[in-house]
Amino acid sequence: MAKISALQQARYAYKPKLPAVLLNDPADIKIEFGKPTEAVADQAELKKLFAHTYGKPEAVFVKGANPDANKKIRVGVILSGGQAPGGHNVIAGLYDGVKKGNKDSELFGFLGGPSGLIEGKYKQFDDAFIDAYRNTGGFDIIGSGRTKIETPEQVAASVETAKKLDLDAIVIIGGDDSNTNAALLAEHFTANGIKTRVIGVPKTIDGDLKNEQIETSFGFDTATKTYSELIGNIERDANSAKKYWHFIKLMGRSASHIALECALQTQPNACLISEEVEAKKLTLRQITADLCAIIAKRAENNENFGIILIPEGLVEFIPEMKSLIAELNDTMAKNEAEFNALADFVSKKAWLKNNLTPASYETFDSLPDAIAAQFLADRDPHGNVQVSRIDTEKLLSLMVERRLAEMKQEGTYTGKFSSYCHFFGYEGRCAFPSNFDADYCYALGYTAFLLIAGGVTGYLSSVRNLIATADKWTAGGIPLTMMMNMEQRHGSKKPVIRKALVELDGKPFKEYASHRDEWAIKTSFVFPGAIQYYGPAEVCDQPTCTLKLEHTK
Hints:
The protein has 553 residues and is α/β, with parallel strands linked by helices. It contains 22 helices and 15 strands.
């Protein structure tokens, strides 16, 4: 038997807490439906695309008779997209629900993400196998993948697998794209008289799959607490050595929820919020100047150290950088062979001088060569710049260093500047889930089973009232089409679940904004420490600052 840590052994024994209604026998839990729903936008178009599944009512579980919950069922489950802490507990909750409904029911895990459904590759779960993954991080129970079920051939293959396994339902655990896929699959199955129902579960550490009905996506709690521990450790080190500025990039391609939450937990000297940068149309020069002003002011107090948090996708929100990226994507796609034939960075830069607009080339030319070269590296499958691979933290560090040198010559800066750069990303995606995520994910999985037992399809598992103790949480389901709109994707309009960006008039950002001027100059660091699993609830079971601020009246 493989060696396991003492913590892992202890976590196997942890019993996740459930909303009170879910503690009843499944046959004593029924769905109570609300009013029909509408999509957040583009209602007419979406109603046509989802003719069989659009407009369904919200669902809430209450005590009541449901004899169908005891029927034998066969269910498949898919992990889709990037890892997030708690995925194993979603599957454990689903498994326990399926077996509690009927001990002869079966759960199959599709291997490697949606491609497992397409290719018919799966693992049938049993008690011993599930028990080895309870309350642990990662997606290694069956693996994940980013394949989308889009083409007629992929859909047909998925139908064939569902029929072959005689599946009553498929549960797709994923983010906004994955659950858009779930909605399309639910519509196809229903339209073609296929009995297999489809239920989604909201997952993403980025925190951008949320709305009034989905209070948070799972994994965000654990990931931000993991990153905040690391940031706190670096803050303590910075305050001890008193000679380094740390530029820390955090995951969050489209939204800055992670950076904002970590700022609320650790109180750094600066935290850039991409959505604010875009709203204020801040240029790279302006951002650099603002950071230099903080550094210079702290230097006056003989504090030549500090912490700056940076969201991963920042460069796409800086106006001139966004224009540069768009031009590079277009220009390099149109002239792919010619560009790829160029031997080195110098020749590529010369070529770009003749093929970019003067404004975009000026932006490109202003970048340090090492960073500029990253904009020209391997493209993603769609031919676009891979923004996540751009060292934005190093870019800002170098720009700040360059500007501070100029300020020294001008006599406006007399301090010392040394920097270190960090990227916290993968460190948080497979961490041991916090008690909150362990409980929340288990409840989401159990709720997914009850939605199946309730006979619905095209729903997202929903557990709400999350700032209360788990027994007071409410469980139910949200129609996937309710969260959708139409967006331009790769040359055509497609239905997608709308991403939730940081709201600049929302309570979490306002809370940060009300303190940031003080934190910028006065060393106000907070050290959250490691995630605690055992002890008083106020230490072990607390939700994120974001969740508390958003849902406390």
